[in-house]
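Example 4.3 (complexes with small molecules)
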Amino acid sequence: MDIRLENASLHWQQHCVFRELDLELPAGQWTSILGQSGVGKSSLLQLLCGIADDADLSGTIQCSDGKPLSGRVAWMAQDDLLLPWLSTLDNVLLAARLSQRQVTPEQRELGHYLLTQVGLGDKARARPSQLSGGQRQRVALARTLFQDRPLVCMDEPFSALDAINRLRLQDLAAQLLADRTVLMITHDPLEALRLSDRVLVLQGSPARLTHPILPRGAAPRSVRDETLLQLQGELLALLAGEAA
Ligand SMILES: Nc1ncnc2c1ncn2[C@@H]1O[C@H](COP(=O)(O)OP(=O)(O)OP(=O)(O)O)[C@@H](O)[C@H]1O
Ligand SMILES: [Mg+2]
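Answer. The structure with magnesium ion bound is encoded below.
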């Protein structure tokens, strides 16, 4: 299902952050958005996830199958939003816990598998307060991957991770979300380029989306890929131009 956000706008204290913004998310593709802090990336993502509760943030969402998007989005917030009174495993199983009376053995097994895949198989019973920031982010990623939704929206999903875990979990997400429509916000150009079919920059005031950069080849791409490194240079220049 293709998804289209139309005529998005955000005003904040007399200031127009963005207006008349359109964003296309082609079915089964991974789209990433980069841009300066405060430019409005999280707000755009929240609009798509249907959690924008601010009257100054608005837009229209169209799905190619004609049905509403509501209930078909998995959202990973910029903050991990783990529930402190639940174990890490129960946080991962949250979608199942909310929609059913009882979690099935298969769902519990999938939850354990995902925790193991994010390197936290031995922390299933731990509370979020017993985990580091990066570990908490990995639980939030596992929780997002657990939800079986056609659109997956992730706001800086790997930002708190060390370099090696970051690459490993990028690979895991690429593998598990291969058939999904994905929108990812990131500040890391290489991350966007190795995972995405389309990379956009949100920039300016009011902010506009640039034409997409289309990295070639199947994701996840190697960080040694020369074409990728060249695109990284171009993307950094684009971002730096914005900062100047
Ligand atoms: N409740 C609020 N509190 C503070 N700022 C707000 C609020 N609502 C809207 N804004 C404004 O909205 C703009 C966009 O914020 P948003 O969180 O979408 O940016 P962002 O691009 O995700 O930034 P970052 O990269 O730092 O996460 C900011 O410039 C901010 O001033
Ligand atoms: Mg943000």
